[in-house]
Amino acid sequence: MAHLPPVDTFDYIVFGGTGDLTMRKLLPALYHRYRDGQIPEDSRIIGTARSPLSRAEYQQRAQAALGEHVKPDALDDATVQRFLNMVYYVSLNGAEADSDWPALKALFGDASTSRIRVYYLATSPALYGQICENLSREDLITAQSRVVLEKPIGTDLASAEAINDSVGRHFPENHIFRIDHYLGKETVQNLIALRFANPVFERLWSCDAIDYVQITAAETVGVEGRGAYYDRSGALRDMIQNHLLQVLCLVAMDPPVSLEADAVRNEKLKVLRALKPISADDVAIYTSRGQYARGTIGDKTVGSYLEDLGEGVTSETETFVALKAEILTWRWGNVPFYLRSGKRMAEKCSEIVIQFKSAPWSIFSNRPEPNRLIIRIQPDEGVMLCVSTKDPTPTDSLTLRDADINVEFEKAFNIRYPDAYERLLLDVVRGDPILFIRRDEVAAAWRWIDPILQGWKERKAPLEPYAAGTWGPEGARNLLSQSGHLWHEDTKK
Question: What pLDDT digit, counting tens, does each position of 283-341 carry?
Fold first, then answer.
């Protein structure tokens, strides 16, 4: 990652500067980019939060965060100290008009209005509009200012539109960066290269050759102290509506006319608008939802979701969701896309599985398994193609054996694969929106998700328990078996 061109000098102002996201992801990402020479020395990182901290105290927190979340071989005292010299702090409640805005203005001082300012809102989405209104009232929005919105953008279409309206009153659409860290993952970005730089794949990339597609994001962790947020959200809002629908768009979209941001996003939008609606009455047919119960992960017994929430708490929030999506286009006619995400599952795994169709007939005594292309998003980012080859064991006949053509990107390129936020944070400074979500994409995704939420609210699909350490409830397998399909892990048995 060395020798990359630096971005222009900037001020990064993080509202929610003492929060988990800032300490765990944002500061380490900016440190890595600084260490690799992409951030000019005169840039500044300004944390803001309600906590009454001095600059020195905030720098100490930042240093502790780097020590915890950056690998030791990437830390050296001199580089860390130079990075910390860029870090400032203002005690400020961004949602309150009478907070200490003069302190933030004083920090800007006489800096040129041509200097890039990025306002990163690592706060509750309910505060986005008020923070932007206060920035506008205090005359802190310049022609070179951008705002970054963390997901989730709303809890349904109506709330998403309200948030986008409130932010849009103060920032033009091309200065609003709705971040989805999944789009910053190198393997997700590599979907564009894999498909459109390799005709061997793109010419097979349709219902002519593909039987079905699976997109999985599985975690072994539970709610991990995020119970208050997660119980209001659930797996469908937290993962499917944004992350996995965006991955689906990159898998399914037609070739864009160029790599210009809106050309790519126009094609993604077409996919979202072509999704077959799942009505509230059909959720039992096309969706499966579950909630983890006590179980075993590795050699450790873990509690249920309700136990993680706290004693005496009841909840019908789903920690697992699987659904069958269909795209009503000629390219994807009769090809189901199975999306799945859950907590406390058997493995930590994010992947895309492209299941190709079987040959119409076989000349071999043992029929070959259909080919599969597996794109691993995390961990061990890479691509694997499962093929049939001649069994090298001496036999009297030509029999077949499965083999994998496996490419692990980190080993292949001998580099550290950057965290998703590293790319995205500097893309905001560059003003490049290609990996960010446009407002009409947000609306189209919620239009598809809202009826599912309504059907679940009306209890038209059961909430099934599943043991922690498994691959989810039985209903998820039934979702595929009714079409004669299997989840990827079941094909290995």
Answer: 999 999 999 999 999 889 999 999 999 877 899 999 999 999 999 999 999 999 999 99
- The residues that are catalytic are 243
Q: Are 332 and 252 in contact (CB under 8 A)?
A: yes
Distance of CA 43 to the CA centre of its chain: 27
Q: What is the pLDDT of residues 163-219, one digit of tens each?
A: 999 999 999 999 999 999 888 888 888 889 889 998 888 899 999 999 999 999 999
Tokens (6 digits) for 298? 């590795």
